[in-house]
Amino acid sequence: MHVWPDIVLVAAAYLLGGLSPGYWLVRWRTGIDVRTMGSGGTGATNVGRVLGRGGYVVVLVVDMAKGAFVGWAARVLGIPVAGAFAAAFAVVAGHVWPIWLGFRGGKGVGPFVGAWLVLAPLALVPSLILGLALLAWLRRFSIAGLFSLILLPAAAWWVTGAHTPVVVACGTFSLLLWSHRANLRSLAPGCAHGVPAPGSETSMHTPQP
Predict the structure, then answer these.
(1) Dihedral of CA 77/120/63/100: which sign?
(2) Could you tell me which of 87, 47, 46 has the C-alpha nearest to residue 68?
């Protein structure tokens, strides 16, 4: 069995994930490091705080395109399911921990959605439905989106019938929970209606791609 194409794709996916359009766009437009602003991330939400809606849309589209490209490359190259989903995880990890920026990047949502839309779009449908229901109840976009992914491992098994997508779904869910830990702290005792207690981190109402 030839595993080198899988290994090369996973490594390339990590490096591609680490290319942060949000960082470079803000640096080009303002000369500042976006990681010193707002939530400290390089994703679309934080860029939007600096550059407005246009910056948000551009960064979100490019971040999703990174993940979609990895999924497309896996399809074109005939990479097996295990290697394809490992690469999908790698592009998210590269976005969160970019080697190019000292391992300080974004939250990983954009590349995750892009990759899974290519590799297993139907696996996202149950999470989308649950996310909309949670959003109507919680009125917290980031929290609703995160916890809707609890259905992703089961949906991945239903769609693919393979073990690796399930493992990757669990790993990605854990990684996104970690990268959104500041959002989750806003649910801790002392935070009322999403407003942090004095001294706690600022609550985030939208996910950081």
Answers:
(1) negative
(2) 87
Whether 190 shows a pLDDT value over 60: the answer reads no
In whole angstroms, give the CA distance from residue 91 to residue 67. 6
Q: What are phi and psi of 120, to 5 degrees?
A: -155, 65
Q: Collapsing DSSP states into helix, strand and coil, what is residue 171?
A: helix
Nearest to 109 by CA among 159, 164, 160, 59: 59
- Domain residue extents for the chain: 4-185
101-122 pLDDT, tens digit each: 999 999 999 999 999 999 999 9
Q: How confident is the model over 82-91, as pLDDT tens digits? A: 999 999 999 9
Residue 79 φ then ψ, to 5°: -70, 135
| Residue 38 in this model has a pLDDT that exceeds 60 | yes
